[in-house]
Write a structure and sequence with these properties.
single chain; alpha/beta; Rossmann fold; four-stranded parallel sheet; two-stranded antiparallel sheet; 10 helices; binds zinc ion
Amino acid sequence: MNVSLRRLFARSAKLVELALFPSFCKVCRALLETPGERVLCPTCLDKIRAHRSSYCLCCGRFFEGAGEPHLCLSCIKERPPFAVHRSGGLYQGELKDLILLFKYRGYEILGRPLGRFVFESLKGEESLWWGVEALIPVPLHPKRKSKRGFNQARVLAKELSKLKGLPLEDLVLRKMKNVPPQTSLERDERVKSVRGVYTVLKSEKIQGKTVLLVDDVYTTGSTLKECSRELLRAGAKEVRAITIAQA
Ligand SMILES: [Zn+2]
Ligand SMILES: [Zn+2]
């Protein structure tokens, strides 16, 4: 079967599954009663909240407890190539369950509530949004994308682009090498594994612009840093980044 046919088939199978067997919440197994509630029950959806604590003004790393946001030690030592990064929440509990369902179980429709969640959590962050001219999803390697059926970062970026009224530029960054998933690597390996993996194809689309990179989870930040370096090298004026959650 060719790739697009396989994708179409996988998508239709998922839609049929959702239409015929919509009965249980995929997180807590509660019976779903309201039509249209296909994956999560309202109780689980309600538990997904923005994380409120102090954070690093630059990399967005959450600190424990309240207090004024300030720079973390690692950003004081060396500023990352992106100007600012923010996550909506912590990669744990129901939010983690939801992201895992979205990424690995084929529930592309979860991009909607997740996109809305990150938007609602961070819509007031002027340092993130001010002057942004384009949204750029972190790309997947074409092989992994065809296996998964969609790029989760693109689905999120598309949702944010609708909510915020900003253009989506999804053909600018390309992933050239299929490296192992970042979650399976140690810290040092992560930094090495992303080097030279991303390239900018249509630099005219970002030249002189402030752009916002979109990804699902922030772990060490090595992917976002590498993408930011490439975008800056290709002529972007400033790169910022947004993720649903940080691990
Ligand atoms: Zn539930
Ligand atoms: Zn920091």
